[in-house]
Design goal:
By secondary structure, the chain is mainly beta. The protein is built from 1 helix and 5 strands, in the order ββββαβ. It has a 5-stranded antiparallel beta sheet. Strand 3 and strand 4 form a beta hairpin. The longest helix is centred in the C-terminal third of the chain and has 8 residues.
Amino acid sequence: SGLGFNGYSDNWGLYVTQPWIRTSRARVDVRLNAGQQFLTDKYPDVFASNSSPRGRKQVNIGSAAITGSVADLPGGLTGFGLVGTTGNVGLRSEFSRDISGDANSGGQFARFNYQINHDQQVWGPFS
């Protein structure tokens, strides 16, 4: 970038999905995920005080999800998803610890995400 901020990451992940419910009107799957990210942030030299302006972080992640869809209304399909994620951000360089310390962006974290959607066939002049 023009300001000198850039970076890259190396990632790996694996998952397993198990069909839980299968009927003519519904399907529900359970999925488990695990992975790692190795992040390298490059900052402009002006940010370097006593160390290299390169921040290194390691993120370990695991999640469990339930997703599915149900044909509930005539011509309609409702989808949903629930995902719980937990992980750890390891600050692997002195520069990362210095930059991220003020924001308290290292250590354990957890989050919960959900989504719901509905697709409905429309009749008449709109179809």
